[in-house]
Design a protein that fits this description.
The protein has a single domain, classed as MetI-like fold (Orthogonal Bundle). The protein has 293 residues and is mainly alpha-helical. It has 14 helices and no strands. The radius of gyration is 27 Å and the shape is globular. The chain has helices spanning 15-48, 53-58, 71-80, 82-114, 119-128, 138-148, 155-177, 182-190, 195-206, 208-223, 227-232, 241-244, 257-277, 279-287. Belongs to the binding-protein-dependent transport system permease family. The chain crosses the membrane at residues 26-47, 86-109, 121-143, 155-177, 198-223, 257-278. Residues 86-278 form the ABC transmembrane type-1 domain. It is a multi-pass membrane protein.
């Protein structure tokens, strides 16, 4: 009796594991290069902030410091009024972030959850704000601020910074609200909850990660803003950190570089610490609009 031929199992390709290994190696090398490009400037900045002025001026600017000193930090606070600049930056950043979160959440809730006949058109108009350059608003805002008495105030920076950050914030909140099950809102409505109660007890608690994402993304832009502060701030007492760095430029354009680097380190450290602490929540907020659940 002739037995039927047994089908041979396909052998795993020898080249496939090798190809995966090459891809992983290339991915690892790429990640390492990106990390070096991102971390090296920060490391050089922190190291240079501890160098003496003579060491920085007389030696190689990119070499390892031959002597460490804390005098640059004390000089940064004494010369540039850094403490007041930090307070002003905090006021502007916290005020604009609060305005962005409140207005962005309410607008996204009205557009995505409540809905109305012209909501697609209104959403499209908000999204057009992403491509509007901030420079075109400087002169009109300066004229309006001078007429209503808002020039040279914290509000003169908070209002435009919040306004130009709203489109992206509304987009992030709308993306998240679109994936909240409609049954949740319907069940709350059947229980007698109105739109304000639904927003306060359901939408708001679920939006915590998205709020963290919106605040972190916009805080970096607001904290480092120069153009609005340079246009609307006239007095030294309201200068933010980017404007305050100009105080380290002395006569004939000479710059106290080591004190400037120390001031920059003081200004970027809070953002780095906040980002490291809330990094996980920020990633979850960015992913919340991409996956349902």
């Amino acid at each position: 009796m002739i037995e039927p031929p047994v089908a041979k199992k396909p052998q795993p390709s020898q080249g496939r594991p090798r190809k995966l290994k090459i891809q992983r190696t290339l991915l690892t090398v790429t990640i390492v290069l990106i990390v070096i490009v991102q971390v090296y400037p920060l490391l050089w900045l922190f190291l240079t902030s501890f160098r003496t002025a003579a060491d920085f001026a007389g030696g190689n600017a990119f070499s390892w410091p031959s002597e460490f000193t804390l005098e640059n930090y004390s000089r940064a606070f004494e010369t540039g009024n850094l403490g007041l600049n930090i307070v002003n930056s905090l006021i502007v950043t916290l005020g604009a972030s609060a305005l962005i979160v409140v207005a962005g959440m309410m607008a996204a809730y009205a557009l995505e959850v409540l809905g109305f006949r012209l909501s697609p058109l209104v959403r499209a108009l908000f999204m057009l704000g992403i491509i509007v350059p901030v420079q075109i608003a400087l002169v009109p805002l300066f004229i309006d601020y001078s007429k209503v008495g808002l020039l040279d105030t914290h509000l003169s920076m908070i209002v435009p910074l919040a306004a130009f950050s709203l489109p992206m914030s509304i987009y992030l909140f709308s993306s998240f609200y679109g994936f909240i099950p409609r049954e949740t809102y319907e069940a709350a409505s059947l229980d007698g909850a109105g739109p304000y109660r639904i927003f306060a007890q359901i939408t708001l608690p679920l939006s915590l990660n998205t709020i963290v994402t919106v605040v972190l993304v916009n805080s970096i832009f607001i904290w480092n803003d120069f153009i609005f502060a340079n246009t609307f701030v006239l007095s030294d007492g309201l200068k933010t950190i980017p404007l305050g760095l100009q105080n380290y430029i002395g006569a004939m354009g000479n710059t106290d570089w080591t004190a400037t680097f120390a001031a920059v380190c003081v200004s970027v450290t809070p953002l780095l610490l906040v980002f490291l602490v809330l990094n996980k929540a920020m990633i979850q907020g960015l992913e919340s609009g991409a996956t349902k659940g």
